Amino acid sequence: MGIEYIYPEFEVVRNSDRCIKCGVCQRQCANEVHKLDEDLNVMLSDEAKCVNCQRCVALCPTRALKIVKSDCRLRENANWSDSTIKEVYKQASSGGVLLSSMGNPNPLPVYWDKILINASQVTNPPIDPLREPMETAVFLGKKPEKIERDENGNIKCDLAPQINLPVPIMFSAMSYGSISYNAHESLARAARELGICYNTGEGGLHKDFYEYGPNTIVQVASGRFGVHENYLNAGAAIEIKMGQGAKPGIGGHLPGAKIVGDVSKTRMIPEGSDAISPAPHHDIYSIEDLRQLVFSLKEATNYKKPIIVKVAAVHNIAAIASGIARSGADIIAIDGFRGGTGAAPTRIRDNVGIPIELALASVDQRLRDEGIRNNVSLVVGGSIRCASDVVKAIALGADACYIATSALLALGCHLCRTCQTGKCNWGIATQRPELVKRLNPDIGYQRLVNLVTAWQHEIKELMGAMGINSIEALKGNRLMLRGVNMTEKELEIFNISHAGE
Amino acid sequence: MSKYVIIGNSTAAAGCIEGIRSVDNSGEITVVSGENHFVYSRPLISYYLEEKTDLQRMKYRPDDFYEKNKCNVLYGVKAEKIDKEKSEVYLDNGEKLSYEKLMIATGSSPFVPPFKGLDTVENKFSFMTIDDALAIEKTVDENSKVLIVGAGLIGLKCAEGLLEKVGKISVCDLADRVLSSIFDDECAKIMQNHLEEKGIEFLLGDSAEEFNGNTAKMMSGKDVEFDVLILAVGVRSNIAIAKEIGIDTNRAILVDNAMKTSLENIYSAGDCTEYVDFSSNSKKVMAILPNAYLQGNTAGKNMAGESAVFDNAIPMNSIGFFGLHAMSAGSYFDEKDGGKCYIEKGERHIKKLFVKDGVLSGFIIIGDVSKAGIYTNLIRNKTELSEIDFETIKKSPTLFAFSKENRGKMLGGVV
Amino acid sequence: MKLEGEVRIPSGCAISAVISKEGNLMTGESIIKSMIPMHDRSNGLGGGFAGYGIYPEYKDYYAFHIFYNDNISRNKCESFLKDSFEIVKAENIPIKKIPEITDVPLIWRYFVAPLASTLSRLQLDEKTYVARTVTKINNEINGAYVFSSGKNMGVFKAVGFPEDVGRFYRLDEYKGYSWTAHGRYPTNTPGWWGGAHPFALLDYSIVHNGEISSYDANRRFIEMFGYKCNLQTDTEVITYIIDYLVRRQGLTLEETANVIAAPFWSTIEKKKGFDKGKYTYLRTVFSSLLVTGPFSIVLGYEGGLMALNDRLKLRSMVVGEKDDKVYIASEEAAIRAMEPGATNIYAPAGGEAVIVNVKEGKF
Amino acid sequence: MKRVFVNEKWCLGCHLCEYNCAFANSGLDNMAKALKDKKIYPRIRIEGDENINYAVSCRHCTDPMCVKSCITGALSINDGVITINQEKCVGCLTCILVCPYGCISQNENSVAQKCELCLKNSSGEPACVKGCPNNAIVYEER
After folding, report:
1. A261, B69, B288, D6: most buried by Cβ count inside 10 Å?
2. ipTM higher than 0.85?
3. Closest partner residue to D93 among B369, B380, B400, by Cβ?
4. Fold that domain D1-57+115-142 belongs to in CATH
């Protein structure tokens, strides 16, 4: 109270004409916001605990509930926003680093929204995806520089290992531990049905999910949790995680409270011990070290698995990517600064890294300038929100996109951004059994399948409109893009024309 | 084409008809109905008095029941005699019926003790049939003083049915408690208190000894004035017709678990039979409607050539008086019989669970009877209580007491 | 208004071609005639021809056809050429002044051979060297534009209707075993001579009708390998793709067609054994060279022609035959104009390459 | 025949099924109107504790004790579905005494009620199934 007091951010508005006191809100709120007062026979709310996850709103059978932003504001100040001031209060009270989850919510430019897509008119025909074949398959991996022939003159058709995707979308890394077993099962099953890949993240691979191996990317991060020979050989590819868009330059910290049962077994660390991923890989202090790890992993898997190197989009990303492309990596994954996280220091999340759109544009161009674009595939993530974002990313030069936040939304996430509390009311970012069971993978996987299928339809529509009937012909096809509301410099980096040009 | 003859036209007969027809759709079925009524539910006669039902709704089966089941029903006709050699049944109208399979479902009749001076009572009734109910209804008015002899099920249901229609009701019974056949003292007291609160007067451990017009002289010496006398002392199985031809009988006709009597081709079911109580493993007359149906149905199937058994019959009752419900099932073994009793009790409710040999043998509940069938099922299945969470199920009947696996079987498939 | 090369200009077109499998020579008269019935497919802003086997006396020399804006650029270019090549002949390309063709630049022709000393110094094969030189001139010498650079072949193009361009260049005076022709319908250009088609590099020449939607994907990929798409035209990028695949990667024309108009995955899935592997391989490795959107092209090269449609056959193209000759055109009328008695007229399927070669030793 | 089944692995114990059931069988078109400030009499009930929950409703037994034991003939089996004629029922509760699953209960008028798969109301498919937020209750052939 007093100096410590911060007025709640949200208000629970309950329409008493509609509330039938069924108690569903009370039973479903892990934050214990709602309570039936037996004496008054009314439902009461403790709004200080509300994180606006909308679980109660979504389950209230009479639509009696809504959560609104509190209008109890501090005195207006264009420099000192409410949230800035409250962060100062919190830190003055706790003395600690502020933590947040999911992607950077601040109003920084979203370049996807400043890029518009072309369509065919008159001089060439748009193509109707319902009538004509419309191909969205891609192969990720290193392509040979030179065709070779055998003694009979036949082309030698042995390719380096590839990931073959029917649609250029994969689910990006989310570790078992940061998200629940059921969330992982949903992702794995959806990936299998869609023929795409999901990514274990750095928490190892639960024994139940080895069967989804052909649709799994196994990750090796700085903590090396759950990494062993079978694990490396279990997936379709191995991803070395050097960085994450939400928190470039820092490691991870999964509190011991979440290292329970199967999470501990899967990570191969004792129950209750904190899972700390160091900021760097302590065997990689430079690019030549990365090359060694890449080849160690290739050796361990008999050169059967493509190696992905994932980095956060940072200032010097083009040069970094060029280095990675020459390290023996087959695929480079770049994670933009809006990418999600289960927990990150707020200052890092909100201030470090660059937008994926710019990173992609400059990396693709740099690799082409160096003539090595075909030696490596490029996967981008960090807030790919919809099918048109995918199309724009491909047209800027990506081979495929990683999606995670959108996948979580499909699983029920309402972006309340409090994953770090472990009390996810939607059963996603939690290990509490009673919460985990709220995500039925039968529903979850189907929704993921629906989402990607819907995006695929939209991608086909957008391609058809452009007169393109294969995604290959879209890759790097920046002529299909125009900018709006951009400076000359931005247009130059994107290497696109302004709309109207 | 088989010829089936059913003597009787109540629940066991209906069960028998449905049993036959589930196997044999063409055999000829003849029903000999002593009462001049479409099959109706006997226990509803008290509800009729109470106006909770009517003659139409009392019908046990839809109006097209006999037609659909292709039955020839002889109303108001009684079977007088069976010729087992010729396989024929002689009727009181002089006709005879030949049968291949015979069902004796003669039920029971009110037992009227030989009271002195009973013939001096003008308005005296039994309470067994719809005709009894109709006659009582015609006789009573709001000032009537009714004396019911017998505080068993029949007497008390009659009291409930009449309470709103008459001035006063007194119930006497030689036993010192109400519902003595299903309740122990403790339970009986709770129910008695409830009935007394509603306005019924009890004279227990006391009974009429002699009647003189509208006065009953009690054993205690007391005189009780009444306008209407209802005799609900008990019932006797109607077994004469069976006994006559040498069918094995005790208090009632003895049947096995296929409902066969000791004579070939002759079956019996319902209140006129005596058979094994699964909960105590002893032969009993369990004159309750569900069992009558189940017996009749089993018999019917067997008469038509199947081999069905009904081998887990238990005594059970579900009764309510003025909103207070009571249920009982199985057998009650107290400690001297090697049993154990768990009791949960309050002023207006009680629950007693009787356990013997590691299984639930019986229970009595007054008050919240919801889900009591789960207990009944424990008795019927002789479920080992060690396999379930008895502590949980003691508090209230719930499938939660079963293992996850068993619960999965119960709820996860077709049962 | 931006000029050709400064902006990408979509255009519709007419194409036509003829080849004698026996290597019999034909004057350019017939191919000019073929463009007349397709007059409406052009808008007078570009027309051109390529003839093969037309310089038998200089067949061992690269024939450079060059537009100059003026003599300054010519002098600059010629002095550059002299440093790198032996020039056996330099001359104006003969033309006939006609009112339909105006704003004529300087049009020169050189028969050249790379200096052996230069080649050995640079450790380059002849063709690579020539291709580089052409790219260099076109990129670096202002006002000079090499529009034909093959041996024993030549491209003739101008701003105007194709039939006028043919007369302008006096093509009836040349004899070749194969000819291609192009009429252009650009939608947004003042017209520039260099921008007319065919587009050629070494002995490859391309006439193309269509507007490909994969342009920038193709361009940005091919530019990794030293090509510069200055004209921003489909023809240019397709020429470079073919040069890259055939000359530099050593693919056959069929294989090249399987990259440019790759079979659908569903089609590849139905193939068996080696073929399935090969198609998958080609499509995977050269995914960025898949050309989508409408096109019909005729590729001319030493000793043959290849016609190819996009996978969905979004542009018309028919093939006909008569005796030793094979005819290809956007419309059957064009074939009939060349040979009224042509038979076996058919429309090749989308993605189906039609390759016609002159008999070995006949060219 | 399709029946209602619960998978306790996914039952959250939210009790929405009970409210949806009560509403579907209320004959009213608005849940607040139907249930506000009223005791509900659902035909499906949640059992369990804080960790394990599951919903129970009539199993529609192939050999139903309730139908055989009903003293009035109010319960009957029609095309596999066990239905009750509440006009006939006098509330003796014998059915409750014999149902092995505890699936029959008393309604607000003290007569027996049970799940009739929403065949008699306007829900279309069983309301408990339709409203279950986690697909813990399904309506299917097994």
Report:
1. D6
2. yes
3. B369
4. Alpha-Beta Plaits (3.30.70)
Distance of residue A21 Cα from the nearest chain D Cα, in angstroms: 8
CATH assignment of A2-96?
Answer: 3.30.70.20
**Structure confidence at residue D54 (pLDDT):** 93
Do C and D make contact via 3 or more CB pairs under 8 A? The reply is: no
Rounded to the nearest angstrom, the minimum Cα separation between A20 and chain D is 4
Torsion of CA C345, C348, C349, C353, to 10 degrees: 160
- The per-residue pLDDT for range D2-55, each reduced to its tens digit, is 999 999 999 999 999 999 999 999 999 999 999 999 999 999 999 998 888 999
A→C interface, C-beta within 8 Å: 120, 123-125, 127, 132-133, 135, 137-139, 143-144, 146-147, 149, 154-155, 157, 159, 162, 368, 371, 373-374, 397, 466-470, 472-480
Q: Could you give the domains of chain B?
A: 3-42+59-109+236-303 (3.50.50.60), 118-233 (3.50.50.60), 326-412 (3.30.390)
Between strands C204-210 and C199-201, the pairing is antiparallel
Active-site residue flag, C77: no
Q: What predicted TM-score, i.e. pTM, was given to this entire model?
A: 0.91
> Could you tell me the two tokens for D117?
């798969």
Q: Which of A391, A477, A480, A497 would you mutate first to test chain C, the one with the most C CBs within 10 A? A: A477
Any residues with CB less than 8 A from the CB of C178 and at least 6 apart, and which?
Answer: C17, C18, C19, C20, C51, C52, C53, C300, C304, C305, C358
Per-residue model confidence (pLDDT) at position B340:
93
Are the Cβ atoms of D15 and A27 closer than 8 angstroms?
yes
User: CATH second-level architecture of A138-144+168-498?
Assistant: Alpha-Beta Barrel (3.20)
Q: Which residue of B has its CA nearest to D94?
A: B318
Phi, psi for A241 (deg, rounded to 5): -90, 110
Sign of the CA dihedral running A421, A427, A430, A433:
positive
Quick one: pLDDT at residue C11?
65
Partners of A22 on chain D (C-beta within 8 Å) are: 15-16, 19, 35
Q: Which residue has the tokens 């009539």?
A: D58
Task: Verify cis geometry, omega within 30 degrees of 0, for the bond prior to B110.
Answer: no
pLDDT band at C13 (very low <50, low <70, confident <90, very high): confident
**CATH topology agreement for domains D1-57+115-142 and D63-114:** yes
Tokens of B281: 């493993």
Q: Indicate which of A437, A442, A446, A447 best probes the interface with D, i.e. most D CBs within 10 Å of its own CB.
A: A437
Are A and C neighbours with ≥3 CB pairs closer than 8 A? yes
C13, C241, C259, C282: the active-site residue: C13
Q: Which part of chain A is CATH 3.30.70.20?
A: 2-96
**Which CATH class for the D63-114 domain?**
alpha beta
Give me the residue label for tokens 């238990």.
B314
Domain borders along chain D are 1-57+115-142, 63-114
Residues A153, C282: Cα–Cα separation, whole Å = 15
